[in-house]
Records
---
Amino acid sequence: MTPPAVSVVMTAFNRQRYIAQSIESVLGQTFVDLELIVVDDCSSDGTLEVASRYQSDPRVRIVRNDRNLGDYPNRNYGATLARGEFLKYHDSDDVMYPDCLAVMTAGLRGAPSAAVALTAPHTWAGGPCPMVLTPRLAYERAFFGQGLFHLGPACALFRRRAFLDLGKFPEAGVHSDALFWIRACQTVDVVLVRADLFWYRAHGQQESARPGIEDAALDIEAAQWRALFDDACPLPPALREQARRNHAYGIFSRAVLDGRGGRVRFGLRRLNRSGLSIREWAAYLRPPVRSAGAGTPPAPLRVGDVRI
């Protein structure tokens, strides 16, 4: 069979309540050259039964794991089942808006140098989309602007081969996506496309609502600090030094807010786990230099006559 343009991978664990709406939002896309691979991670409720109702659509494939893999190992396994030129993750409790795939594929096809297209919950600062970010611009947006490494897998459309070449997601728990962006944006271009292309459902059973999520955020802060000392960091020396000051100030400010909110012990834990030595605190704890438009390319990308 001819491979589809886009492989949508939907990993699922105990999502009986939400998965039907999620699947229907994929099958209702205006972009129709797709396959949907639902990878059930040994659900104990009716998730698999609900998903199986959609197998009459030839674009749908249902896979049930022999054992529970966990969130990111299951995402990585799902990527190995995909056949499309592009790979899109869609969580089994979220809803894609009808033009999501059309917008993201147009953006990525129009940016041959980019390995991934990214959308966001809110409008990107700095200018109109689509815009192509080199590694340096991605890091400028992350450390001098409104951030970039906080995005989840559902915000991305990958060139499938590029995603596999990057080694897929690290399997390091709930913050694996942030660790992936820190590493990937050192070496590949990304294209930012229009924001608000899917609805992120918030509920008490999702991974980000589990105990320990705040400690995972501390791990991300430490990983970002290490990235600013990595030889592969794409920032030139002067910007790298200022990025360190910005990041140190951000960590310290959040620790102060922790203390003011009555969470003194957590604030101290934030400082201890930051990765900064006493000497580094003395050297880098300075007022930040930030701009909402940081990491914006000189001109927006033109993608033929396609409106993005």
Note: The domain at 6-201 is CATH 3.90.550.10 (Spore Coat Polysaccharide Biosynthesis Protein SpsA; Chain A).
---
Amino acid sequence: METDTLDDLDRKLLQALQLDGRSPFTRIAAVLGVSDQTIARRYKRLRSSSEARVLGMTDESRLGRTVWLVRLHCTPDGADRLAAALSRRADTSYVALISGGTEVICAMRPRTDAARDELLLDRLQRTPRVIGISAHCRLHSFFGGPVSWLNKISALTTEEEAALRPPAAEPPADAPEAPLTVTDADEALLDVLQRDGRATVPELRAASGLSEDAVRRRLAYLRGTGVLYFGVQYTPALLGQRAAAMLWLSVAPAALSAVGTAMAGHDEVNFVAAVTGQANVFASVHCRDSRQLYVYLSEKIGALDGVRAIETALVLRHIKQLALEPGRWP
């Protein structure tokens, strides 16, 4: 995979942070054979030049919550304003313009059934310039969440990756059966980490009201139960990914698992999940250009048994990624 402006150390740092977003810079520096000041400077530069950052993410399924992928067909003059409005909602984690700018796709994470119904059955139905809505419940993720495309770039050597990968988290002995519950203090921690996954323990203590020891215990608990994980947000174009597309695949039920698992291993895929609807597999892919996207569709997707139909929509502009202000993603 090619890179436009990032050098080898930048790529190594991004992959190291994807493996463990809260790994101390001293540890990363020791493994990569540079000074910790160098790593700190590189991370600061990546934050300012490419808006790369570590974010704390919540696995909604661990809390008994459902993620919905909502596709909104709009009049040509309505998509921009609708996307901006959706990006300001706390229950949306992703918003993008697709299909010539007349469609908006968003990922929403309602905390309650009532909140889901208020958005899908009431508010969006009454929104001017929305002419069609389709909502797809995420049933099972094959790739995404704790793992991302950065896990596939092979910037680190096998030895470096082994040294930087955190030990497998063991669920605490007192962890309840799913769905889990979180406290108000936990929610405060998660809110801070969604904005900055590398927030310091004193910062987390100030936000939650917990002692520093209690903060460390709750972080260990949330990570051990899988409620909290860390990922790296980055600008795809800086790693040569200039053609982003959304795919909706209609797959024979007997082939659903095999197709999803195969796509999870494709270099181009950064998210793939089984969803409800006639198109029962949804995927997000990044390619170098439209030519590579064509080759991917015709050769890799075309080779999968059980794929009956596919719809492709190019992403024109990302409006929101979790913890970013609207419009800051190029």
Note: The radius of gyration is 20 Å.
